[in-house]
Description:
Layout: E1 4-10, H1 21-31, E2 38-45, H2 49-63, E3 67-73, E4 80-83, E5 85-88, E6 100-101, E7 107-110, H3 115-118, E8 125-128, H4 135-150, E9 155-161, H5 169-185
Parallel strand pairs: 1-2, 1-3, 3-9, 4-8
Antiparallel strand pairs: 4-9, 5-7, 6-7
Helix pairs in contact: 2-4
Amino acid sequence: MQKTILLTSFDTWLAEQQSNSSDDLLLELAKLASVPHDLTFLRLLPVDVQLASSLVIAKINELQPDYIICCGMAASRSQLNIEVVARNTNILPVESTDIYLLDSGESILQTTIDLQQLVAETTAVEISYDCGKFVCNGLYYSVLDYLRQSQLPVSCVFVHVPVLNEENLSGILTNFVLILNKLALL
């Protein structure tokens, strides 16, 4: 049975950026005819946590996907990074067993996907615990929190994509397709 997967990417945020690597990767993925999944692309999200989150949540409600892969650009990284956690420092403490509250009042949400299993057959993919401090982290946290509060049987993961070029595109795309295929089997 085909799995429905929602994939998101961001728009650029600096005037000198010609594109966002997260969107570049989804464009390359869309060109492939060999991906046997029902993929829905929500591309060029605004680089604004609240606006991007509301667009993704609306698409989740409309589509009811099996999985969500949010993608963002990480220009300082050289390979795909799959994020384990997202952090929020601007929430009130809550009583829950699936949110970790730190002494600073920061809360952490974690993907429900077994990332070790997900990346087992990939090369040059790193599991990361640093989703950043801006829109990537904010979107990931918002989506994980929405899924948790709504008790939807949907899993989400965030993938940071390095700047793509002729040397790394093929390998990154191959690893991303492996992740998609593995995700659909979970």
